[in-house]
Amino acid sequence: MKQVGPLCALVFCAGVLCGEMLLAGYVFQWHFLPREVAPKMSYSEFVSVLLTGIAVILAVLALFVASLAIWGYSQFKDLTRAASAEHLEKMLNGGAFRNEVEALIIKHVSSQLEHGDLRKLLAERVDIIIQGDAAKRAAGASADTDFKD
């Protein structure tokens, strides 16, 4: 993005220089072609050409500003995400906020263990683990005894 600044300045200066050359040619009536071949331009045509040029320059400038806005928004989003994560980490590492969060978690888990389905779910999972391990141990014990005989 640092290379865009000089490039834009160069394009702007070239546009201004071309505009000044056209204006000087019109004001001082410099002709690059012989007068017989040179087209006659009325004042209204000249103004319409200048306004068209200004409109094109403004359109390019608007595109440049839009690209800067999109780039700035993405940078702003990344910076705010990093700052909020850092702030939350500071708050959770120490202080009253950490104690509040821990108390809420303990309160919620305790109420789920006493009145909710968490107790049944934990009991089912522990039973599955114990039964699965018992089957593995039984299979391992029979395999060990087969090799010892």
Give the secondary structure arrangement, pairings included.
Blueprint: H1 4-27, H2 43-93, H3 96-115, H4 118-148
Spell out the key features of this protein.
149 residues; mainly alpha; 85% helix; rod-shaped
Can you give a write-up of this model?
There is one protein chain. The chain is mainly alpha-helical. Helices cover 85% and strands 0% of the residues. It is built from four helices and no strands. 0% of the residues are buried. The model has no long low-confidence stretch (mean pLDDT 80).
Query: What share of the residues does DSSP label as strand, in percent?
Result: under 5%
Low-confidence stretches: none
**Total of helices:** 4
Work out the number of β strands.
0
Distance between the termini: 77 Å
DSSP helix fraction: over 70%
Question: Structural class of the helix and strand makeup?
Answer: mainly alpha
N-to-C series of helices and strands:
HHHH
Rg, Cα atoms, Å: 39 Å
The mean pLDDT is: 80
Main sheet summary: none
Shape: rod-shaped
Summarize the structure.
This protein is mainly alpha-helical.
